Amino acid sequence: MIARTRDGYHHARPAGVVLTENERRILHAYGQGMNRRQIGACFGLSERTVGRYLTVAKEKLGAETLVHAVVLSFA
After folding, report:
1. Which domain holds residue 35?
2. What per-residue confidence (pLDDT) applies to 3?
3. Could you tell me if residue 39 is inside a domain?
């Protein structure tokens, strides 16, 4: 088990978690500061679809927030 850091979050991706290419690209764009509308326009997706990708990726990674999911996606 990985200990929490001072900020209270785990910073290692859970073993066996594999994100799809779209999940990784969308998390990366979110991490660059783009909002759902901007990400959707960039990838030809609706805001709702982008939100769903973000939610699924966050759940897969066991993240508490989207920012935490972005950090874990690069771990």
Report:
1. 21-73
2. 45
3. yes
